[in-house]
Structures are given as C-alpha cells and as structure tokens.
Amino acid sequence: MFQAIKLLKRAPLSALFGIVVILAYLLVALAAPIISPFGESEIVGAEYEPWGDQFLLGTDALGRDITSRLIYGARNTVGVAIVTTTLTFLLGGITGLLAATLGGWVDQILSRIIDILMSIPPLIFALLILAILGASITTLIVTIAVLYCTRVYRIARAVAVNIVVMDYFEVAKLRGEGIWWIILHEILPNSGAPLLVEFGLRFCFVFLFISSLSFLGLGIQPPAADWGSMVKENASLITFGDITPILPAGAIALLTVAINLVIDWISALRLKNVRIA
Questions:
Q1: Which DSSP string corresponds to 11-38?
Q2: Cα dihedral value 26, 191, 261, 256, nearest 10
Q3: Residues in a beta bridge with 59
Q4: Which residues of the chain fall short of a pLDDT of 50?
Q5: Distance from C-alpha of 219 to C-alpha of 229, rounded to nearest angstrom
Q6: SS3 65
Q7: Which listed residue, of 94, 154, 155, 215, carries a Cα 20 to 30 Å from 117's Cα?
Q8: How far apart are CA 105 and CA 129, in angstroms?
Q9: Domains in the chain, please, with CATH?
Q10: How many other CB atoms are there within 10 angstroms of residue 181's CB atom?
Q11: Residue 233: which region, alpha, beta or left (left: phi > 0; alpha: psi -120 to 50)?
C-alpha cells in the first residue's frame, strides 16, 4: 500500500491524468442509476430535442435522454469490456503459463491451436459467430475472449519460458511441488508486471472491438445503452451540424487514451526495475 502511494507521488502528470479519468469512469459506471436524470431506455420527450435545461444533451430518435444513455453506456460498455478482458486473461494466461511449465507435447499442441486461431481475422470471425448464434451478451463475451486469448497466451508463454530456466524454479520442482503450486507461487509473481501491462492493452483492444461490433449492430443490443451503437443511432445529426454523435465517440477515445497513459507509466517502471506488484 505504501509502495503504491510512493509510486503515485512520483508519477508524471500524464499518468495521474489517466488514473483520474479511469476512476471517474468507474465511478460513473457504478453510480449510473443514482446520477442519471432519467432511465436508461425511458422515453422522456420528442425525438431529437435540442440541448437545454430539461435535456442537457438533447434526446435521440426515440426521445430518450442522451445524457442518461451516455451514463448508462459507461456501465454497459466498460462493464462488458472488463468481464471480457478478465475471461480473456484467464483463458490465455493459464494456458500460456501451463504450456511453458509443462513443455513438450502439451506446449506443442497448445501452440499449434493458438496459431490456427491467430490466423483467423477477428472481426470477420466475430461477425460470423454472432450472426449464427445471435448477438447475446454471453455469446459476445465468449467469442471475443476466445479470439483475444491468443495474444495473451503468446505473452504469458514468452514470459514464463524465461522463468522456467531459473534456479528457483528447478528448486521448487526438486522439492516435489505440484504444477499449479509452482505456477501460482513461482511463475505468476515474477511475471506480474508484463501481464499487468498486457491486461491494460488488451482491455483497450477489447473495448474498441465491442464498440465496433455495436456500431455494426452485432454488439450490445438495444435497448441497452452502448457508446458504439449510440454513434450509429445519432450519426444523421452530423448533417445538421449537431455534435451529439461525437460525444459517445469521445467517451470511447478518452478512456482509451487514459488507459494507454497509465500503461506507458507502468512500462517505464518496468524498465527501471521498480517493483509494482
């Protein structure tokens, strides 16, 4: 805890800005029902009401409050991205560490499966699966997790391969420790920093991928508020000089930039061999 406070005191302004933005997004997502002026799908006015006192950012084509949907969009878009990224890391991280630890035929089989999955274009594959199985939240999460776990597998395996040749790894094997004990107590603690950086990067990719699918109509489905679908729903307003469609796009861009600023700082700490986990 004290180590984290010391690191934050020495953090650059860019990293502090990123941390503040991330915390603000999380706060908005958690407190959405409290701070939102209207319900997520509640029709509260006429279509395309202008910005004003009653509707701060106007209404959409169905008369729903844009401000409320932006707030709920933080919960839906960011929430689904966090769950998907976590599942991605569980799939890719566990298999990658296991492949490096066991080696031999296990490593070969898992690596060849990953090679096959990596050869498939992610967007085309996701569109195909979602079109066949339906664009439910569960299908969306599992499909993206399977597609992106390949990158996590590569990172986890590459890091673990450098650890399994260390003396403390051999000592743990000679003591008779089990595979999972070695992974949890010897490999994982020594690979935390690069995996943490990869988690942030992978979250950005997943977050943007979900927003892209929603824009195409196969992501988070209506009436749930989602920033990607909000851009599509209000895109026609650009023709009339209304910047409303830019707001959800800006929300996506701001969070992505904030996470990358924090990742850059963590990467710099890694290069300086500063303990962060």
A1: --HHHHHHHHHHHHHHHHHHTHHHH-SS
A2: -50
A3: 65
A4: 274-275, 277
A5: 8
A6: strand
A7: 215
A8: 30
A9: 10-271 (1.10.3720.10)
A10: 12
A11: alpha
How far apart (Å, rounded) are the C-alpha atoms in residues 230 and 226? 6
For residue 265, report the phi and psi dihedrals to the nearest 5 degrees.
-65, -45
- Token couple for 127: 């569109």
Nearest-angstrom CA–CA distance, 170 and 156: 19
Q: What is the rounded distance in angstroms from the CA atom of residue 241 to the CA atom of residue 253? A: 21
Q: Which residues pair with 43 in a beta bridge?
A: 64
Distance from C-alpha of 44 to C-alpha of 205, rounded to nearest angstrom: 34
| pLDDT at residue 161, as a whole number | 85
Determine contact, residues 213/219, Cβ cutoff 8 Å: yes
Phi, psi torsion values for 188, nearest 5 degrees: -60, -45
Number of neighbouring beta carbons within 10 Å of residue 118: 13
Cβ 129 vs Cβ 138: under 8 Å: no
Q: Are 88 and 199 in contact (CB under 8 A)?
A: no
The span from the CA of 207 to the CA of 188, in Å, is 25
How many Å apart are CA 221 and CA 198, to the nearest integer? Answer: 28
- Name 45's Cβ contacts closer than 8 Å, sequence gap at least 6: 54, 55, 59, 63, 65
- Residue 157 tokens read as 């395996």
Tally the residues of the chain.
277
Look at residue 56 in the predicted model and tell me its pLDDT: 85
Within 8 A by CB and 6+ apart from 241, the residues are none
- Residue 39 pLDDT: 83
